[in-house]
Design brief:
With 349 residues, the chain is mainly beta. The chain has 3 helices and 25 strands. It binds fe (ii) ion. The site of fe (ii) ion has 5 residues, from strand 20.
Length: 349
């Protein structure tokens, strides 16, 4: 068991509302609070590596992206790993989508134009915009966040954290998609009961763009500056949020800071994607490691002050996530100190 007592001082434990924006309580404890011996039930921290979460669309081009986690609020987490282009078009009619490209190069064709995304890009496809995508090479892997509440860039200073003019790129209309023949258009809804239209032509064959604004954009993780309160660090700052405030996204890459405090996040589940090194982030060193700490579960978290540097992002959500049986089977219980596998998992393997 870990012992984080330094210089004889007992560890401090925080309880916070609204992330770090609301009420707070701080106490000391005589023991290291994140330790647990075993757990039964769904509301327990998990970790998985995208290479082991094999999406259905990897081997079956007709499949949709595979759900990793669902919630009563309709916020969902999915993974995709296409090797072939989508043979159909999808329009999510109840949620905005953020596609994070973990690996590969992906060309998106949408109702408002085309955009090619590289590793590390977040691609935003708002509700009711039809799209299809394809890897430009042999393979790709992405994590998709679905949010019924509209998602928008919301750095704390309008241009401080993101250089919007330089680094946010928008879809452009090209004349390279022919009208084509009959095409399947799948309308995705929160109930999972997809509705399939057969259209006489390719719905993504466009003419020209007339409006000034384009709702489909991309931004690379490494173009989002990290905020830190020197010398101790403090909480990270979001670059993206939903209008309902139930989804917040952060760049959680390495930064000068102290280790986070041992804390209980009363209102948010925390999903972190360790994207890549060179440096390890605590117990996470495999590119595309997804970690999840459900709300109300005490955790510490690895040091973010890693000299070799690493890239990671965090999604906080008011939704209570539930991993699907397939995702649970491809994941491990996680300890909440360094975010490695829980010792009980190591005994099993
Ligand atoms: Fe936390």
């Amino acid at each position: 068991m870990s012992d984080q007592t330094k210089g004889g001082e007992p560890p401090v434990q925080l309880w916070t509302r609204d992330g770090f924006m609301g009420a707070i309580s701080v106490v000391t404890r005589s023991t290291y609070a994140p330790d647990y011996l075993s757990v039964e039930g769904q509301h327990a921290p998990r970790r998985s590596v995208l290479d082991r979460l094999i999406p259905d669309d990897r081997d079956n081009p007709d499949a949709l992206a595979t759900t990793v986690a669902t919630s009563r609020l309709g916020i969902r987490l999915l993974v995709s790993g296409r090797r072939k282009p989508m043979p159909y078009v999808v329009r999510n009619v109840e949620a905005d989508e953020i596609h994070f490209i973990q690996s590969g190069n992906v060309k998106f064709e949408t109702d408002v134009g085309c955009i090619t995304a590289d590793e590390g890009d977040f691609v935003c496809i708002p509700r009711a915009i039809a799209y299809r995508y394809a890897p430009t090479g042999d393979a790709m892997r992405s994590v998709i966040v679905e949010s019924p509440s509209a998602l928008k860039l919301s750095p704390p200073a309008p241009t401080g954290m993101v250089n919007v003019a330089r680094d946010v790129e928008y879809a452009t209309v090209g004349a390279d998609i022919p009208a084509g023949g009959p095409t399947k258009l799948i309308l995705k809804t929160l109930d999972g009961e997809n509705t399939v239209f057969t259209m006489p032509h390719d719905p993504l064959s466009l003419g020209m763009q007339l409006s000034e604004s384009v709702p489909v954009w991309k931004l690379n993780l490494n173009k989002i500056q990290v905020l830190t309160y020197l010398p101790e660090g403090g909480p990270p700052s979001q670059f993206l949020s939903s209008t309902a405030g139930d989804v917040l996204m952060f760049n959680l890459s390495s930064r000068p800071s102290n280790r986070p405090p041992i804390h209980i996040n009363a209102d948010f589940d925390e999903v972190i994607c360790y994207v890549r090194g060179p440096g390890a982030w605590g117990g996470c060193s495999e590119p595309g490691t997804l970690t999840w700490v459900p709300k109300g579960v005490i955790h510490h978290g690895p040091s973010e002050n890693v000299k070799e540097a690493y890239q990671a992002w965090l999604m906080e959500t008011r939704a209570t996530l539930r991993w699907t049986p397939a995702a649970i089977a491809a994941s491990q219980l996680m300890e909440t100190s360094e975010y490695g596998p829980h010792p009980s998992e190591l005994r099993h393997s």
